[in-house]
Amino acid sequence: MRRQDRELTDRSILTDILHRADCVHLALIDGDRPYLVTVNFGWT
Q1: Is the whole-model pTM more than 0.90?
Q2: CA-CA to 23 of 20 to 30 Å: which in 15, 17, 30, 36?
């Protein structure tokens, strides 16, 4: 992770976010071009 000051490592916080979310917005960069992918997810 590039921004360690924003990294989430507390499992209870991560679980809470996933319980409240309907989808995830995954932002990436390919060379010099950023793009965003919205994904639905399931987890157990």
Answers
A1: no
A2: 30
